[in-house]
Amino acid sequence: MLVGGEAVTRHNRIRWLILIMAGLLILSGCSEEPEETTGSTDNFGGLVCLEYSRFSGSFPEDGSGREVTDVAAMLVYNSSSEFLDYATVECSIGSSTGTFQITGLPPGATAWVLEQDARTVSDGDTFTARTCEQYAYRSDAVMSTELLSVEPDGSTLTVKNVSDKTLENVCVYYKSLHSDGHYFGGICYMLNFGTLDPGESAQKQSSHFGSDSKIVRYSFQES
Length: 223
What we know:
This protein is an all-beta fold. The protein contains no helices and 14 strands.
């Protein structure tokens, strides 16, 4: 969800590095860091598909946390210098098509993204990226700020306006981290704290926020 009317810059900047794998890895056992690989490339830079896998566990993409088994998972890397607002990637999974939604990925970051409808992968299935026709980057994303202080406490987040100006539509965007250090899920969560006067604090609680959460962006307007 985009808040505050910030401009979105679109770029023809998608690069696919297709990693051909002999088999599919179980996500919980994957711990490799992103690296340059050989493969089919375009000279635009941007989003890179590093690895294809499958995942069994808590499903993040619809916010439900329901248990799933052998769902198609893809490790993606934002190699650009800008914040990836969103991207929609289509992949061939066996004889069908899977869709992967990536939102809120900072520059230089990696994320395990699961197929949006929890489509599964079987042994021997072909699993490769086909196209990415919808995407947008933000050159003006606020990924850190001295105008707000943020204090997490379990599932509660307290945000305080430490500036001398009123801040309107204060929003905090965050993602979850996997145990291997990559972000987990294409989903990016958002909490809206409304308008904060100088020195004013507000609290929000979310079942999705916890010790494995990391703030990736802020948005607000000064008045």
